[in-house]
Amino acid sequence: MNQLSSIPAAVVLAVAATACAAATDVTVHNSSELRLAIAGAEPGTTIWIAAGEYAGGMHFQDVSGTAEARIVIRGMDPEHPPVFKGSAQALHLADCNYITLADFIVDGCTANGLNCDDGGSFATPMHHLVVENVTITHIGPRGNRDGLKMSGVDQFIIRNCRFIGWGGSGIDMVGCHQGVVEDCYFHGLDGYDNSESIQMKGGCADNLVQGCFFDRAGSRGLNLGGSTGLPYFRPSVGDYEATRLLVAGNRFFGCQAPVAWPTSSQTRVVQNTIVLPDKWIGRILQETKDPQFQPSHDGVFEKNMVVFDRRVGRPEFINVGPGTAPETWKFIDNAWFDTEMDRKPQLPGTESGSVYQVDPQIADLGQPTMRITSSDPRLQHAGARAWRRLDAEAWLDGITRVAAQSSAP
Question: Which of 84, 124, 168, 170 is within CB 3.0–4.6 Å of 90 for a Cys-Cys bond?
Answer without folding.
Answer: 84
